[in-house]
Structures are given as structure tokens and as C-alpha cells.
Design goal:
Layout lengths: L6 H25 L4 H16 L11 H29 L7
């Protein structure tokens, strides 16, 4: 297989590995931290807010570009929520929210 043929698979694998490593790092760190649940909630809020405030590298020219940025922000916020929920689940902090 040509190396460029599996670029997407390699990138996805690397991203998944990095996400798993971060999840494990935070899970282990939180087990040793006083007031971990409150601190984690603050971090979650900060992370979700930051993902919603992503800025483009240049001025957006069209409605299509602005819609794309809006979608990227929403996707980034959803991924941040999923990540923090998985870490919270490892700690046993998730509650039935719906």
C-alpha cells in the first residue's frame, strides 16, 4: 500500500492514541488530587468554553466559511464534553443527567 493511501488511518490512530493517553493521565492525576471533582468541573467548563472560542487564522470571507467555523466550534465543544465525561466516568462522578 502506498504510504499516502493510509494517511487518514494513521492520523486517526495517532489521534485516538493521544486521546487515550490524555484520558489515562487525567484519570490517574485526579485520583491523587484534593477536591478533584470540583477542580475537574472547573477545567471542563474552561475547556468547553475555549473550544467554542476557536479563532480562524484569517478573516473569514464568506457565509460558507463562517458556517464552517460555527460547525467546527460546535464539534470541538462536543468532543471536549465527551472527553471530560469519559474521565469523570472513570472517577465514578457521572450522574444520570437526562
Amino acid at each position: 500500500m502506498n504510504p499516502s493511501d493510509n494517511f487518514g488511518l494513521e492520523l486517526a490512530s495517532r489521534l485516538a492514541l493521544h486521546e487515550a493517553l490524555l484520558e489515562n493521565l487525567y484519570t490517574n492525576l485526579l485520583r491523587k488530587m484534593p477536591d478533584a471533582q470540583e477542580r475537574w468541573k472547573g477545567f471542563e467548563d474552561l475547556l468547553v468554553h475555549a473550544m467554542g472560542d476557536l479563532q480562524p487564522p484569517r478573516e473569514l470571507q464568506s457565509d460558507e466559511e463562517r458556517q464552517w467555523l460555527t460547525q467546527q466550534r460546535a464539534t470541538a465543544q462536543a468532543l471536549a464534553r465527551q472527553f471530560t465525561a469519559r474521565v469523570a466516568a472513570h472517577q465514578g462522578w457521572l450522574q444520570d443527567e437526562e
